[in-house]
Amino acid sequence: MSQQEFLTRLVRWLEAGRIEYYLAGSLASGIHGEPRATHDIDLVVSLPPESVKELSSAFPSPPYYLDEKTALEAIRSGQSFNLIDSDTGIKADFWIPGKTPYERSAMTRRVRVESPYGSLWVASPEDTILSKLRWTRMLGGSEQQMRDVRRVYEVSFASLDQAYLDKWAADLGIADLLVKVRAEARPA
To answer: C-alpha distances in angstroms, 169 versus 81, 89, 110, 113, 162?
Structure first.
């Protein structure tokens, strides 16, 4: 199964269950900026605990791997868990949204897009920028993350809500990284 087929199937399952989600990470930055190869599918998902058994049934072993106990603990603690296609090694990381004002804002600002993966919910360009800047900070300065951020900033520049970026970058402690992106970006 290709990454596109895997994601399409996941989105169909989430939407059939009316589960709030959005695509994040490198696939989201590729939609808003410049596509690049990645094996991971990052989804922020408000998954209720009772849906874990249904997810496991929809993606049975083999070829899929899902540790239901780990998934339930991730939901309880606001962490992440994954679903792996053992045949291809493609991994879907399910990130459970926290309860902070920023995380609530990101879920409400998700955008519906037509993409190579079909119609789906994706983190807004601003939230894609902010989340990748947070990862850059946590990873100690990932150049790949910064490159992704610059491309989203450049491609989406005309429609970006700069005040939103400023507010949350300050609150999240990444304002210096946003300043750097602005200094290096060459908007289209």
So the answer is: 27, 34, 18, 25, 10
